[in-house]
Amino acid sequence: MKKVFIISLLVILADQILKFWVKTHMMLGESIHITDWFQIYFVENVGMAFGMEFGGMGGKIFLTLFRIVVSGLLLFWIWSLTNRKASNFLVIPLSLIFAGAVGNIVDSLFYGLIFNTPMGEIASVFPADGGYGAFLCGKVVDMFYFPLWEGTLPQWLPLWGGQPYLFFPAVFNIADVAVSVGIILLLLFQKKAFDEHSGYRKSDRYVRGF
What we know:
Layout: H1 2-25, E1 31-33, E2 39-45, H2 56-83, H3 88-114, E3 140-145, E4 149-152, E5 164-167, E6 171-172, H4 174-188, H5 190-197
Antiparallel strand pairs: 1-2, 2-3, 3-6, 4-5
């Protein structure tokens, strides 16, 4: 479990440190242009990854509770895999997914309690008048924005021809990246991950690292 703990801790710390910095140094909607195609753009969402929403505030609470349950089950699975000396091709991606889920769960659980959302000002930590929301109702902080291309679609395209288009409009955070990378690694190395875990190979053939 040592590698699981280290990976999860590093991802969660990096995610939360950056989110705290954004919350305490930037106003909501403010952006810092790093390049023409990369911005630190402070937005918040109440729903799923990459700014998607799900059923209003009731859906938000349900989603947070669902994430907690799934994360607990995932952690138990990872623990059982490490006890059986499963492949790192399986354990490491699952650890990234777990850490990313926890990173966003922290926002949902506590950010509504510890931050306010003043109009036109930077948020305060533990404001005297209380936070902007209740327990389970915190908004997830996103900041990575890659507007790689913006223009008008060619006229010859059916349905969408001539309409404005922005390629990759999603705004996301480190936790989202960890989840996405974990899923991509599982897809790329699924045979090595699941075949070894299934017992088709002996334990002395397990891959010990990437």
